[in-house]
Amino acid sequence: METKIFDVKKMNNEFLEEAYVYGVETAQRDIEAAQKDIRIAADVIKGGGLVAFPTETVYGLGADAFNADAVKDVYKAKGRPSDNPMIVHIARASDMGQLTTTISADVVKLADSFWPGPLTMVLPKKDDVPKTTTGGLDTVAIRLPDDPVAIELIRMSETPIAAPSANLSGKPSPTKAEHVIADLDGIINVILVGNDSRVGIESTVLDLTADQPVVLRPGIITPDQIEAVIGKKVAVAGNTAMADTDEAPKAPGMKYKHYSPEAEMLVVEGQRNKVENEIQRLKKLNEGLGRKVGVILFEEQAFIEAAHDFFAKLRELDGQDVDLILAGALSDRDAVGFAVMNRMMKSAGYNIVKV
Ligand code: TXA
Ligand code: MG
After folding, report:
1. What would the pLDDT profile of 292-305 be if each residue is shown by its tens digit?
2. Which of 27, 84, 91, 343 could serve as 19's disulfide partner, Cβ 3.0–4.6 Å?
3. How far is the CA of 203 from the centre of ligand 1 (A)?
4. Is the CB of 204 under 6 A from ligand 1?
């Protein structure tokens, strides 16, 4: 398949803000050109095709959420098990009504506080949302992304867009258009090239179907922030190796090996200076055995930066053909640190040493 690759960066806000530098008319023309390309992509969605698009978290691979065949093609393109449900993306909060009938006061408050943004709400689904989209579940995960290209695409498609991350299943999530092109060029219809993802890890997934809300997947919107909005205690699913249990996972995505780099990966956890020393020791040891070693060590308290860089770093090291990645653990007492550790532990296949 020939994949159309459109550069639509000029839809972005910074560009609008800078428009006065080179003239509003030029800016307007560029935006219209980008909109024309997004219109072509929207027509592909309407016709049952697949479009990769930027969001503030990671790039998504989208299909019409109401078209079960198109959604099946997403699973196929990614090589993803089909019981793993997708997040359905909407362009305005009022579109939630197409997907769920259960819009409680809490849901309204959360949408009002965090949308557009990296919060996904799991709610009972309406009957006409295909089970293919929800991986066979009676619930649907809904998100309004904070990216002008994504919003324009959904709006022009005139349908909610089901979209997992736009990577081949098992690869690190894509935070740059080049990652999407590396994985999906020739496999899907259109790739919309926007800015690098601002957040860098996927949205917080919050299950609102029981009395107590549960964070199924941690993200940069934290349980504290959610509690402050709804005035209720929020439970958090642990960063445990779900793959090791036979239990039916609440967020089915959690049971698969995820985000793996090609290289073997080891997480080193402990006091900062001990971690640094152990990483240096293991690096020398492995290099002495002729192995190429990559290191991921973020500043100790730089959780947001770590979230932003983590997946890109994995891909960068894979690109350098390293044999072993040594990664320093972040403190999971910080909620964003916890969210990054959730990804880091999965990438490493829960391979960890404590020092
Ligand atoms: O930031 C994001 O959420 C990105 C961008 C593209 O929006 N999307 C994303 O999608 O990460 P995906 O498919 O890679 O992850 C979806 C997660 C999985 O862990 C899945 O199990 C969970 O959300 N999920 C989806 N629908 C669910 C449902 N009905 N109940 C429980 N978990 C659900
Ligand atoms: Mg994913």
Report:
1. 999 999 999 999 99
2. 27
3. 8
4. no
